[in-house]
Design brief:
Largest sheet: none
Distance between the termini: 31 Å
Order of helices and strands: HHH
Strand content: under 5%
Number of domains: 1
Length: 85
């Protein structure tokens, strides 16, 4: 349950970063580039979630292949991947 709460907090942090940083970033970028407002917000959210996920994964002990679910040997992993596709 604690892990779920951490990832829910991470999503809320990503949404808060979108709300806080999109308009200032748009004001800086709009005179030079023609990026739409929503695109800048999406990129800021993706960046915040990627950084937050990396930090949260290390804190929760999910920093190796095995703990993320990729612990199979390569031939067996490729077989399972082909079945899934």
């Amino acid at each position: 349950m604690r892990t779920f709460a951490c990832f829910l907090g991470l999503i809320l942090l990503g949404l808060a970063s979108i709300a806080a940083f999109t308009y200032p970033a748009w004001l800086l970028l709009h005179p030079h580039f023609e990026f739409p407002f929503h695109r800048i917000g999406e990129r800021i959210g993706m960046l915040a979630l990627a950084v937050g996920f990396l930090l949260m994964a290390r804190r929760l002990g999910l920093s190796d292949r095995r703990s993320l679910g990729y612990g199979l040997p390569r031939p067996q992993f490729l077989r399972e991947l082909s079945i899934g596709l």
